Amino acid sequence: MSFHLARLSLQFGISSRTAGTNSSNGYYYHLLFNPTKRKFTATAISTAQKSSKEELLVVVGGGAAGVYGAIRAKTLAPNLDVLVIEKGMPLSKVKISGGGRCNVTNGHCSDNKILAEQYPRGHREFRGSFFDMHGPADTMSWFTDHGVALKIEEDGRVFPTSNSSASVIDCLLSEATHRGVSLQTKKVVSSASVGAGGKFLLKLEKRTVSFVENVKADYLLIASGSSQQGHCLAAQLGHSIVDPVPSLFTFKIADSGLAELSGVTFPKVEVKLKLENILRNTPHLTQAYIKFQVGPMLVTHWGLSGPVILRLSAWGARDLSSSGYKGTLMVDFVPDLHLEDMKSILNQHKHKYAKQKALNSWPLGFSLTKRFWKYIVHREGLIGDTLWASISNNSIVSIAHLLKHCAFEVTGKGQYKDEFVTAGGVPLSEVLSLSLSLSLSLLVLPKPQLDFLLLHEDLFEHNGKQEMCTTFLCRRVPTSVLKLIYLEVLNVDGVTGGFNFQNAWSGGYIAGTSIGALAAEGTLEEGVL
User: Fold this and answer.
1) 279 and 362 fall within a common domain
2) Burial state string for 419-455 with b = 16 or more CB within 10 A and e = fewer than 16
3) Rounded Cα gap, residues 68 and 70, in angstroms
4) 403 or 130, which is more confident
5) Which end of the chain is less enclosed by CB atoms within 10 A, N or C?
6) Structure pTM?
7) How far apart are CA 219 and CA 214, in angstroms?
8) Same domain, yes or no: 260 and 366
């Protein structure tokens, strides 16, 4: 997603696996986090100290999915070396999300089918067992068990009771340190390939200095979200990429009168978007309607925002990009009343308050603010001294229609603090959702590309509890080196409200479970999984 947090890319070969990390200077670094000082300490450790039998997992990306997945893998396989590579500061998006509070997940979606509908890209695939393995309740339990007290707000968003993302960051980094996860920052994995022996050949670079390090990894987890780095690595490993476009953004509106209402909120409106000149998979430009959305809306100095607008932008992300972010937004400001009922209420108000100015009196049942009612009256063309008694029946009908079908010209997208969410990545058609166990047989067909894998489903046991690992497997499998790929850079993204982070926790947990369980059991041998 894109903030796409939640499908991680791991690959293993089926040939023999031997050495651990190869470093040009003979050292790797263990990054320790001190939550009291909020500082990192790098400790150089000679690779000569590492056993030749130790296996290495490299995680590309120190975001929510990468760190969560690294912790899970290390928890299941304590002897597995886990190295997270992050080009910037780890968990940087966690820090700024939710206005600095971190919207951890959403607590109002216990039904997985309803939860899946919160993902414009991915809602069909998520109707299966993806969230069964690690859903919102599991996420909340994990953080609570690790010392982060949480609260569910009225709209379902879940935040730490501290109202600070630092609580979440400190928890994750402290747990990673406790488990022995290594973290290197200010580095990028610039290339990835699969060697003849089935290991991953990774090239690490620093942008600020001339530095190149070659690393051989047994497992590779690409958890870099919507960054170009992750997309490039996925492409190098044989995947195609759906070009990313912004999702979760506000609308710029060409209406000077609306700009004067900056700060006005509407608890519940219904919106629909009509777009012209959309270029899809045809040579002709077409018209598109983005599905109805209902929820709170906010007027800003540049246009419209709020959860309902952000959800609409997510569902229409690709068509909006194609249209140049221009279209017509239709807003129903009184969605719980029918048009005929509104006409009747307005007529009753007219007769009851005939001698009052229309500018200062309106039906309270419409739940409108005085500032917005004045905007509607002026937009209808009524002057300030107009009395209700002098308002014609045609004007009554027109006001009711305006409140139910108010059109605004969208001229562009606004900037929004959550605009690091994008739509794009590896197409879902290139992965297959299956159940993965620890003792499965693979049938390698004598074809240039495998079209499918035959798997025997099974359960594995961890801490006395049976678990089924559900994940995404790559369909594009060269027969020379069989690879199982878990991708965090899929074309999947969620609407606002904690769903993108839940995507991250679920995907990280699933990938970490798969990697950790396989590494712990040592079941990946030549020709057999």
Assistant:
1) yes
2) bbbbbbbbebebbeebbbbbebebeeeeeeebeebeb
3) 5
4) 403
5) C
6) 0.78
7) 15
8) yes
